[in-house]
Every structure is written in structure tokens, then in C-alpha cells.
Design a protein that fits this description.
binds D-xylitol-5-phosphate; 221 residues; 8 helices; alpha/beta; binds zinc ion; TIM Barrel; 32% helix
Length: 221
């Protein structure tokens, strides 16, 4: 288990005209990872950004770039995201034809491997995959958009996944993504979440990203 919860601001909600500055601001304010939401217009309706933004972020931060691929059939693009500077690559169990092979590929590329599951996907969908992963990303909204309401029904799934990981002796981290804010964090923390992705709560905060991060840190420490 991670000793301290990790906060991973999602740059999907950042001001893209000032992306470098905003990443620096959250890094200095104590963010643990930078979460990079890649959307392909197929697995989820919007198109966000891809390898060039990962490459642009790489030199401006020491933090791990946590790349969340909301992409249908991501296998052909894993190498290019690793080359662009991803430290961790997370793929969706719902989007992969041969996910076992793709998770092995991510590790062979030198990255940490993550598997994500949508709110409607049961924990059991991961049972054969858990030995291959470093991160389990539990979606607490249906992916595609920032600013949606947290779905509390996913929390029992977090508890189940923690038990499954413990039974394997796995150190994989459980990350939650969607609708994370100071109100929703406490129950997620109690369920066993170790990594909190937050877009609007950080970059949409009225007093700026550092203040948004500080508000989350208050409830995670
Ligand atoms: C949702 C993305 C999230 C999203 C989180 O499809 O994977 O990372 O940006 O945004 P908030 O924190 O605003 O729900
Ligand atoms: Zn995400």
C-alpha cells in the first residue's frame, strides 16, 4: 500500500494555453502524478489529445506521466506513447481485444501497466489480469467528460479489488477517476483508494490549481 495517498491532477481540465505553467504549479503544490486523458472519439465520444501533448508535458515535470488511454484497440499505439514519455499507460478492459498481451507489452516498453474498468464493469473482469498490472483504475464516472458526478456504487468494487490484490500479494495501486472532490474523497479513501485523479476540482478551482490541490490534500492527509 502507498504510505500517502497520491493526487493526480488531470490536465484535461487545464488551461491549454498555459499548460506548462499549470503543470509546474500543481507539481510545486505537491501533486504526485500528472494524469493525461487521451480520448479517441470512438471508445468515448470526444477527441482530446495524443502523443504530442505527452511529449510536450515530458520536459516540464519530474512527476510520472500517468497516461489513461480511452481508446478503442490501443495496442498499435502503446509504443508511441511510451516513446513520447509516458511512465504509466492504462488501458480499458472494455476496449481491448487481447488485453493480456497489451499489458505485457506496456511493461516490456518499460512503463508501468494499468488496467481501467468502467462503472458497469465488474471487478471479476480483472481476475486473470491482476498479476500483470501495477495500477487498477476504477472509473467513478462513465469516461469521456470532466465535471461529472461521482458514482458511489463503484466503492464496493474498490473493496473487492483490494481483497483480490491482497490475495495475490500484489502491490498494485488502486486509482479512482471521475467526480473526485473534497466531498467524495473520504468514502473512497475508506474503501481503499490510494490514487485520486481530479480534473475540475484542481484546474477548475476558483482560486486556481494550487488552491484546488490544497483542498484535496486537506482530506487525504
Ligand atoms: C473522465 C476522465 C477523467 C476526468 C476527470 O473521462 O478520465 O480523468 O478528466 O475529471 P473530473 O475530476 O472533473 O471528474
Ligand atoms: Zn482519466
Amino acid at each position: 500500500m502507498a504510505s500517502q495517498p497520491i493526487i493526480a491532477p488531470s490536465i484535461l481540465s487545464a488551461d491549454f494555453t498555459r499548460l506548462g505553467e499549470q503543470i509546474t504549479e500543481v507539481e510545486q503544490a505537491g501533486a504526485g502524478w500528472i494524469h493525461v486523458d487521451v480520448m479517441d472519439g470512438h471508445f468515448v465520444p470526444p477527441i482530446s489529445f495524443g502523443q504530442v501533448i505527452v511529449a510536450a508535458c515530458r520536459p516540464v515535470t519530474q512527476l510520472p506521466l500517468d497516461v489513461h488511454l480511452m481508446v478503442q484497440d490501443p495496442a498499435p499505439m502503446l509504443a508511441s506513447f511510451a516513446e513520447a514519455g509516458a511512465d504509466q499507460i492504462t488501458i480499458h478492459v472494455e476496449a481491448c481485444r487481447h488485453i493480456h498481451r497489451s499489458l505485457q507489452t506496456i511493461r516490456q516498453l518499460g512503463c508501468k501497466a494499468g488496467v481501467a474498468l468502467n462503472p458497469g464493469t465488474p471487478a471479476g473482469a480483472l481476475s486473470e489480469l491482476l498479476p500483470l498490472v501495477d495500477v487498477v483504475l476504477v472509473m467513478s464516472v462513465n469516461p469521456g467528460y470532466a465535471g461529472q458526478a461521482f458514482i458511489p456504487e463503484v466503492l464496493p468494487k474498490v473493496v473487492a479489488l483490494r481483497q483480490m490484490l491482497n490475495a495475490l500479494g500484489s502491490q498494485a495501486l488502486i486509482e479512482i477517476d471521475g467526480g473526485v472532490d473534497p466531498q467524495t474523497i473520504p468514502a473512497a479513501l475508506a474503501a481503499g483508494v490510494q490514487v485520486f485523479v481530479a480534473g475540475s476540482a484542481v484546474f477548475g478551482h476558483a482560486d486556481g490549481p494550487a488552491a484546488g490541490l490544497a483542498a484535496l490534500q486537506q482530506v487525504t492527509t
